[in-house]
């Protein structure tokens, strides 16, 4: 009898375990998908936007955890995505054209949206004898970190094509935005470039610490740049944006892209884009430039980008009724 009871108990235990195993295998716990979002220097706009977008997505898309990664920005973000080491990120318009010309497989990438602009701030101390970019000859200039659009687009291409300047004409320093402000404070550089959306907290802080100037871009130089680079957009930074600068600054900007890998699922990209666009109050609180991530800006300049939109983004734009009208928003 004792053996029979043991056998009966064992049989019941096997039955319970079998039922439990059925429910575990039939209804598996949803796996968390981890997404790396490439941004830029902690002193720049990319970092604030990426961290804010990550928070919005984490709060509104189940089973996804997005981490904002500080990088050297545009070029590094694109290259990391192409290598499969990052899933999505921000990049300056013109970046993909440049790396495609170098032989990289940009077909692994797709557009999610076009949003904010990065604004050219060529900064000098107020007492500097540099009055225009042409005066950079023989000086020490902060040109941006390796792997960034600050370096590869503005400092290299624009200085050469707009002003005929190469890095043989001055001493370039490959430094981040925070190192540019430190260099201007310490007088270890004569001028430096910060290429991010105004108003910039790092420039505001610098302007409170020391008197600075932001160089104007002369109209004829700007016209020459625009003739060669269709994505160059004139920009006025209003007087009073930065302490001690009491006149409008005439400069220019470039639109910025939110891009991702092609192998992200349509549903995931759709939900992430929806999380950002459908929560305007939370999005706009991230940074003044976050307000530019709205549907009417999503296609601006996109005909010049060598890749198309991700199917998940297309699904969202169709849902809100603007995909078939996108040509109206190219400019």
TrEMBL record:
InterPro entries: TRAP_TAXI. It comes from the Bacteria. This is C4-dicarboxylate ABC transporter substrate-binding protein. Residues 1-31 form the signal peptide. The lineage of its organism: Bacteria, Pseudomonadati, Thermodesulfobacteriota, Desulfobacteria, Desulfobacterales. Pfam families: NMT1_3. Keywords: Signal. Gene3D superfamilies: Periplasmic binding protein-like II (3.40.190.10).
